[in-house]
Design goal:
38% helix, five-stranded mixed sheet, alpha/beta, Rossmann fold
């Protein structure tokens, strides 16, 4: 038996959902992975072209454009019961256009607590409450078991030329803090551009070059090593620091190994 529910998303929008939900479009990679891991393989009918995990399942789904450029005609053909997006990763104009036609639930994740709330909320919406609660419990247990408080002063780079870093009020900053790192650019808001002089003045113990959104490679690592010889420079898996869905189950182990690797760099 179907019914309508009024729910609130993480941006405070009230959404009218027609239950049961049988056709879902996800506009964000980390939330797409979450939906698959909650067991919604059949319900997912469309994803963004940046949604790549799990690889075998994403390959079979219809791509509705990028995270900031939607194919509206294709989305209309898919007739979704629910579209799931994110404030930071999607663009306002596109979301407003979709919201005028379809139920669109938006996340707004800037901390681990926000991520836990997002996972639980999505689980409740798609009738996977127990699975979502179990997932959050698993993540929290691993986070609590993580005891390393290295105090390593880190600059976390998300873009190259112009150099851009993760500052405060970001999920990455909260992840760094939860794992005992000190963000040397925590006094700068969001994702600021920084100069070579600012980086030198910050004098980080370690420089993390993320795999996303800019795909830093070994050539960039070598360039940073030459510019900042006193810092330990590492290429890092950006998903482990910035994906706020089910991938969080693996972040603690990954970052524990990363800390071990840093200790071996002289």
């Amino acid at each position: 038996m179907s019914k309508n529910n009024l729910i609130k998303d993480q941006m405070g929008n009230i959404i009218c959902l027609h239950q049961p939900i049988r056709r879902i479009i996800s506009l964000v990679p980390s939330q797409t992975e979450l939906l698959f891991d909650l067991g919604l393989d059949e319900e997912i009918v469309g994803i963004s072209r940046f949604c790549i995990h799990p690889k075998n399942k994403c390959a079979r789904k219809v791509k509705i454009g990028g995270t900031k450029k939607f194919n509206f005609a294709l989305i209309e053909k898919l007739k979704p019961d629910l579209i799931i997006g994110n404030k930071e990763e999607n663009y306002q104009e596109g979301i407003e256009r979709l919201s005028s036609v379809f139920p669109v639930w938006m996340s707004d994740v800037n901390s681990l607590e926000d991520a836990y709330q997002m996972i639980r909320s999505v689980g409740e919406i798609v009738n996977k409450t127990k699975e979502a609660d179990d997932m959050v419990s698993e993540i929290q247990t691993k986070m609590h078991e993580f005891s390393d408080q290295s105090g390593t002063r880190v600059a976390y780079f998300i873009w190259n030329k112009p150099f851009m870093v993760a500052g405060e009020n970001t999920f990455i900053d909260d992840m760094l803090r939860n794992f005992g790192f000190i963000n040397v650019f925590k006094d700068l808001d969001r994702y600021p551009e920084v100069t070579l002089e600012q980086i030198g003045d910050a004098n980080p113990d370690a420089i993390f070059l993320s795999s996303e959104p800019f795909p830093f490679k070994f050539k960039h690592l070598n360039e940073f090593k030459k510019r900042f010889p006193s810092a330990k420079v590492k290429l890092v898996d950006g998903a482990m620091f910035s994906w706020y869905g089910s991938r969080l189950r693996y972040s603690a182990d990954y970052i524990s190994n990363l800390i071990t690797d840093l200790e071996s760099i002289h």
